[in-house]
Amino acid sequence: MNHFLHFFRSRAPGRDPALDAFIKAATKGLMTCQPRKSFPNICTEEKRALKELKNNADIIIKPADKGGAVVVLNITDYIAECTTYYCKLNSDTSKKYKKVLVMD
Fold this sequence. Notes:
By secondary structure, this protein is mainly α. Among the domains are: 2-31; 58-88, no CATH class. Helices cover 55% and strands 10% of the residues. The chain contains 5 helices and 2 strands. A two-stranded antiparallel sheet has the order 1-2.
């Protein structure tokens, strides 16, 4: 918004009185604009429940792979799922794959 106001302030006044009046009124309106007061979209009980879930060390909350949903898993199931898809390597393979990526 500062760039917008700078554009109008840097313009030489006096070319068009109607335009100058509009610029003055618009600038004043923008400078005196107060942010709207925001209101929570959840009740106190829901906010407390979310905080409790967030602080619970026995679960993990993650976005789902598809669909924009949220998944809540107990930590044991989460670790089991991770070890299904990922495994520990015996050696560092980053140099090998770095060469392949640079060549492509």
